Amino acid sequence: MVTEYVKTLVELTNGQYEKYHFESEDDVNLSQQIKNYWEYLGLSFPGTAVPWSAVFISYCVKSAGAISQEFLFAPSHSQFVHFAIKNAENNTGVFKGFDITAVQPELGDIIQNNRGGNKYDFAYAKKHDAYPSHSAIVVEKGTDLNGHYVMTIGGNESDSIRKKKVRLNNEMKIVQRPNSPYISVIKDLK
């Protein structure tokens, strides 16, 4: 069952995509919105040259109604993923981090992957909260001619807000990829 929070998160994230996906981070409208993302989280805006993808995720999750006791709003994906993994380990909280092989991604979940040629895995993410990565919010689940998928929206993807398909296997779990491999899924149980 999709909760009211998840519906709000998906709607809000889709709204950010619809409004800004044709713009680049250096365009006035998106640049101002990126500044809003940082400031909404109580952070100083360092400019668009600083990666803002985790701030985008944190902004969407917070704007949809999550609070700081539930989600670690942070400028780094690894920080909020580590927090969510601890929630799963301790069976606490409403955002819980799991290995991609352990769960099926659903609407409102957050999928984390490597970037910059790194190959960190879930075991690494479980022990560390500072490493380069990326994540995006699941906004759609479906099937096309190539099989099952979830559609994600992420910030700072090609300097804008973009959608991507993540392929699922017949068990509806993420198909690992060789480049920028997936690390974890944060289940959204709010």
Please, could you describe this protein's structure?
The protein is α+β, with helices and mostly antiparallel strands and 190 residues long. It has one domain (4-188). It is 32% helix and 25% strand. It contains 5 helices and 6 strands; from the N terminus they run ααααββαββββ. It has helices at residues 4-20, 28-40, 53-63, 77-90, 122-127, and strands spanning 95-99, 110-114, 133-144, 147-157, 160-167, 182-188. The protein has a 6-stranded antiparallel β-sheet with strand order 1-6-2-3-4-5. A hairpin with a 2-residue loop joins β3 and β4. α2 (28-40) crosses α3. The relative contact order is 0.20.
SSE blueprint:
Layout lengths: L3 H17 L7 H13 L12 H11 L13 H14 L4 E5 L10 E5 L7 H6 L5 E12 L2 E11 L2 E8 L14 E7 L2
Antiparallel strand pairs: 1-6, 2-3, 2-6, 3-4, 4-5
> What's the total number of strands?
6
- Summarize the amount of helix as a percent range: 25-40%
- Backbone shape: globular
Average pLDDT over all residues: 97
Give the SSE string: HHHHEEHEEEE
What fraction of residues sit in β-strands?
25-35%
Q: Low-confidence segments, ≥5 residues, pLDDT <50?
A: none
Enumerate how many helices there are, as a single number: 5
Termini Cα gap? 11 Å
Give the strand order of the largest sheet, numbering strands 1, 2, ... along the chain: 1-6-2-3-4-5
